[in-house]
UniProtKB/TrEMBL annotation:
Keywords: Lipoprotein, Membrane, Palmitate, Signal, Transmembrane, Transmembrane beta strand. InterPro entries: MdtP/NodT-like (IPR010131), OMP_efflux (IPR003423). It comes from Hansschlegelia plantiphila. The keyword Chaperone does not apply. This is RND transporter. GO terms for molecular function: efflux transmembrane transporter activity. The lineage of its organism: Bacteria, Pseudomonadati, Pseudomonadota, Alphaproteobacteria, Hyphomicrobiales. PANTHER family: BLR4455 PROTEIN (PTHR30203:SF33), OUTER MEMBRANE CATION EFFLUX PROTEIN (PTHR30203). One of its GO terms (cellular component) is plasma membrane. It is a lipid-anchor. Residues 1-24 form the signal peptide. Belongs to the outer membrane factor (OMF) (TC 1.B.17) family. The keyword Transmembrane applies.
Length: 474
């Protein structure tokens, strides 16, 4: 009876083991299903102009170039990303240790004395080695996973560094825009004061009323009130730059200038398929996908038997002078086979690895599609912001002409104050709108460079490069 029960238990256990093995093999890798478009919807370029390694120099600002170089060297987020590369490289070495034998040495000495007996001593020195045969590729899979993660950390650093550089450029342009608006606001105050002085003269001779003077005083006060928030914005942009450069704000002085003095850089995307090789976020997602695919392989291999080899050799003697004699030598060799029979964690580990792989698969697909979306948005933004700046420049020209005519007619007494106020407000608002349009155009260029993955790598290597081998993502 007991034999039947034991046989039943053995059969049940064997069935569970077979079920676990079946779970390990029941894995169908999802398809990537990411198709690159053959063209861009909004492009006018005949041939591609990919970003250069120092693409920011295309704006023609030496100060901007200096700030970006300093940010690359001292930004704290870039430093943290470099540290994560060090951690990932260390993990590769840790996982790689399973592919080589583990060797340990030891030595021991002892002295024993009991009442009525002589003192007995002993010396022993040994060398131990152990190694797991990687028949099923589990250890190699964990190494591949760590290697892919280390590659991912490098692309992650590029993502961080590219974000820092674009933040520096955008913040610097915003600072220049605020400086330009501040100069316009101060000029507007002078113009409003000049008109108020003229109205005061007309009030004295009875050709203007106190209401006219009060209305113009309101315009003057409004223009003065626009100055403090612009000055605050300038200071906030300066402190933001200091943070990006890893410096206290008090140590950073930024000259700035006029946006109109900047150059429009040349940049145009090539084929969409090429973009996937240049975008560090896409390459990072691809590497993460390869890492989790290797994790699935390792989780499947955990269902299968593991074979461990151990060896020990050394010398043992009661006297040091005879410790390394041939008759004192000792050694042993053993081999062990371990087969998981009933481990409830194995199916869960495998399902978790599969789920993580699928999650990274969708992340990879989204990163690829996002790169196409970002480029299309940047293309239309560059073109339309340039068109808006041109049209807004025409509006400023017309508004200034109307303001000059109205100012001359007011001096002659042939225009009413309401018309004068309207021409003032129109000129002031169109000038501000022109600066905003100019800022939008240069920030659209920055977005284009970012959408194209920049033109450099934080690691000092060429951007993009060859994609991961097919074996890494299959």
């Amino acid at each position: 009876m007991r034999g039947l029960v034991a046989s039943a238990r053995l059969a049940s256990t064997a069935a569970c083991a077979l079920a676990l093995s079946a779970c390990a093999n029941n894995w169908q890798r999802p398809a990537l299903n990411v198709a690159s478009p053959t063209r861009w919807e909004d492009t006018r370029a005949d041939k591609p102009v990919w970003p250069k390694s120092d693409w920011w120099r295309g704006f023609g600002s030496s100060e901007l170039s200096t700030l970006i170089v300093q940010a690359e060297q001292a930004n704290q987020d870039i430093g943290a990303a470099k540290a994560r590369i060090e951690q990932a490289d260390a993990q590769v070495r840790i996982n790689g240790a399973s592919l080589v034998p583990l060797i340990q040495g030891g030595g021991e000495g002892s002295v024993q004395k009991s009442p009525g007996t002589r003192t007995v001593g002993g010396l022993q020195t040994t060398l131990n080695a152990s190694y797991e045969l990687d028949f099923w590729g589990k250890n190699h899979a964990t190494v591949r996973s760590a290697q892919a993660t280390a590659l991912s950390s490098r692309f992650a650093e590029e993502v961080v560094a590219l974000g820092v550089v674009t933040d520096v450029a955008n913040t610097y342009f915003a600072l220049m825009s605020a400086q330009e608006r501040l100069a316009i606001a101060r000029d507007n105050v002078k113009s409003a004061q000049t008109i108020l002085d003229a109205i005061n003269g007309r009030v004295e001779v009875g050709t203007a009323s106190g209401l006219d003077r009060a209305q113009q005083q309101t315009v003057l006060d409004q223009q003065r009130a626009t100055i403090p928030p612009i000055e605050q914005e300038i200071r906030t942009d300066q402190t933001a730059l200091a943070l990006l450069l890893g410096r206290p704000p008090v140590t950073l002085a930024v000259k700035g200038g006029r946006l109109a003095s900047l150059k429009a850089p040349r940049v145009a995307p090539g084929m969409p398929a090429e973009l996937l090789l240049r975008r560090p976020d896409v390459r990072e997602a691809e590497a993460n996908l390869a890492a989790t695919d290797a994790d699935v392989t390792a989780a499947r291999a955990a269902f299968l038997p593991s074979i461990d080899l151990t060896a020990q050799g050394g010398f043992e003697s009661v006297a040091l002078k005879s410790l390394f004699a041939s008759q004192s030598a000792l050694y042993s060799l053993t081999a062990g086979l371990t087969q998981p029979i009933l481990d409830p964690t194995l199916p869960g580990n495998l399902d978790n690895a599969k789920g993580t792989y699928r999650e990274n698969l969708y992340a990879y697909r989204k990163a690829a599609i996002q790169s196409f979306v970002d480029t299309e948005n940047a293309l239309i933004a560059v073109r339309k912001s340039a068109e808006q700046e041109r049209l807004q420049g025409n509006a400023v020209k017309s508004a200034r002409e109307a303001f000059n005519i109205a100012q001359a007619q007011m001096k002659e007494g042939t225009i009413d104050i309401v018309t004068m106020l309207a021409t003032q407000q129109t000129l002031f608002s169109t000038q501000d709108a022109l600066v905003d349009a100019r800022l939008a155009r240069f920030q659209a260029y920055v977005s284009m460079f970012e959408a194209l993955g920049g033109g450099w790598a934080a690691s000092g290597q060429a951007p993009g490069g060859t994609p991961l081998p097919e074996s890494a993502i299959k």
